[in-house]
Amino acid sequence: MAKLNMLEKQSKNSKKSKITQSIPLIKFFTPSVDQIRNEVAGIDRCYTSQTDIVGEGVQNSIDEILSCIRNMTLKTGECTIKINAKEREISIIDNGYGLGNNATEVSNLLQQFSTNKLTDVMTVGENGIATIFLMFSTNKFILVTGNGTTKTTVTAEGLRDWKESKNVKDININFSESESDFIGTELLLGELSVDQPLFNLTYQQLVYLLRTKTFIGYTRAIWEKEDKVNNKVKVNFSFIDKLGNQYPSSSKNQSIKFGYMMPYEGIAAIHYEEELKDKKGLTEQEKREILNNKVVYSEKTLTSEKDQRNIHILACIVPNRDYWNKRSVELGLCNEQDLENETFMENFDYCLMGSSIVLSAKGMPTTIELKRPRNVGAAGYWDNLFILIEDPSLRFDIGRKSIIEDLSKNYIQEYNRILKDIFNEFAKNVFPFLKEEEKFDKKIAFEEARGRLDNLGVAGLPIIKEPSDQEAHVNDLFIVLLSKNIITNLDILRTGYRDKYDKLAVADGVKDIVIELKTSVDKILRNFNNATKQYPDIDYIVCWDVSKKEKQKFKIKGLDLKENIIYKTSFSERTEFRHSASHVITADFIKPIYVIDLKVIVEDLKND
């Protein structure tokens, strides 16, 4: 204050100030119409999934039902979902014990960031904005909720239009209260946008989404077998399409399963732990007979090393990548023509089965998918995998688009370690046996071998064809060139050292070296990336046909793949083994790796 007085004295025109307005704190922070509209628009931007409009309503309903069952105030829960594309309406009805005891409590709960779920660690909802999103997505909002003694009805019209306009006119949200023995909650979202994507779907697609992207796909019972809650919840679903056709046609057959729709639901599948892992002494042929063209699934509950929480994992391995499309057709999610239609796939691929890594929390699946871990061998098999991770400790941002930032890095690192372990176990025990060994047709095999590959074209070499994509073929040619003294000053000591490196050898009679065989030299980069092989350990790489494209790949990785200036075309002058190397890989401050391109040597033989 002394400083303020000093400033006032320095001003010649200074007069004693007086308070002209006093604004209460709550009123000061009360938003204007434009601010409310901006806040609603911000909430809208948080909800980006095509299923949010039904998913958020379902979540509130199932949360209430499960809470009542756990509190033993309800024996059997029931949730009824109706989607009417022709009238642009969605209704969700449940028999839980309502949202509040009176209109005042209901009014408080409908306001932004208000929730009554913070004290219940089992409920999914936690940020209190889902109802705001639902209200402003509709021009006809009706909510009826009762606890057996009091029924509260909430109505509002024109909220979506108001949100999208610049109209400053206020809109009333009406609350009425009456004595009633009604128990439950009925939500009607009417006059939704004509662009609502759910209205363009089929009945089968909607059932699939409800059971994989919303709380109807209850996941806890997958791992917690003692959790019988899923048997105490009945779900009814009906759909009227844009033409007025009703599905299912009979009102007596509207029940759908409360629980996650597994990729193998309704078909014979192999339980990995029970039918394979715990069976000791199976031969490879016996494994192949068990797994041939079968879907394999694994259920694990792991304990986090960091905080001792349980992390549940469901992993499903399908025999081939075509399985996802075939299964989608079988379930009526699409037809064969749809799969070839680019427009269909662009707009409706989220309705089809496929390979993914999906997160679930507190029993509710989300639309959040994790990226596949990098640096694993046999990476192509990821397309055969579906993995569901249930972590009850997960917390998400508004709209559940991602894990909240303070948890994201640590959790994803932990998940990646788990996923790599699972993948590597399956790579060893499952992937090699999924397909039946193809029957050998001798005539066809020889026709393919003679016609598919170019002739090597070197007289005196007992190898007819150039190496293809088989390292064994590269190895055969390498050994022949050694035996013919075309590649000299090398003695093979051991092949396949501990299944890590291809050959241990002695060069020039004194130097111990490690040799790797590759069909193309750039394949060593994959080994470096996934740390299955170490750059400092390797001295030589033997391959077929180094190209400019491969040189560019090394350059991207900070390595230089270039011609070896000491390579000599005259075989008689090669006094050291490294003289057989046509190329060399170099980088700053590390030793080189020499590359023997067998094609260069073969071309030299042709020219001599």
Strand content: 15-25%
The best one-word shape is elongated
CATH class categorisation of the largest domain: Alpha Beta
Reported CATH architecture of the largest domain: 2-Layer Sandwich
**How many helical stretches?**
20
Count of extended strands: 22
What assembly state would you assign to the polypeptide chains in this entry? single chain
Helix content: 25-40%
The averaged pLDDT comes out at: 84
Biggest β-sheet description = 9 strands, mixed
Poorly predicted sequence stretches spanning 5 or more consecutive residues: 113-121
The count of domains is: 3
Termini gap: 99 Å
Topology diagram in text:
Elements: H1 2-10, H2 25-28, H3 33-46, H4 52-70, E1 77-84, E2 89-94, H5 103-110, H6 130-135, E3 138-147, E4 150-157, H7 159-164, E5 174-179, E6 183-192, H8 203-213, H9 220-223, E7 233-240, E8 246-247, E9 255-256, E10 269-271, H10 272-277, H11 284-291, E11 295-303, E12 310-317, H12 322-330, H13 336-339, H14 342-348, E13 356-361, E14 364-369, E15 385-390, H15 405-429, H16 442-452, H17 471-483, E16 490-497, E17 501-507, E18 511-517, H18 523-529, E19 540-543, H19 548-556, E20 560-563, E21 583-587, E22 590-597, H20 598-607
Parallel strand pairs: 1-7, 10-11, 13-15, 18-19, 19-22
Antiparallel strand pairs: 1-2, 2-6, 3-4, 3-6, 4-5, 7-8, 7-9, 11-12, 12-15, 13-14, 16-17, 17-18, 20-21, 21-22
What would you say this structure looks like, in words?
The chain has three domains: 224 residues, Histidine kinase-like ATPase, C-terminal domain (Heat Shock Protein 90, 2-Layer Sandwich); 165 residues, Ribosomal Protein S5, domain 2 (2-Layer Sandwich), CATH 3.30.230; 165 residues, no CATH class. 32% of the residues are buried. It has 20 helices and 22 strands. Strands 1, 2, 3, 4, 5, 6, 7, 8 and 9 form a nine-stranded mixed β-sheet that branches. It has a seven-stranded mixed β-sheet with strand order 16-17-18-19-22-21-20. By secondary structure, it is α+β, with helices and mostly antiparallel strands.
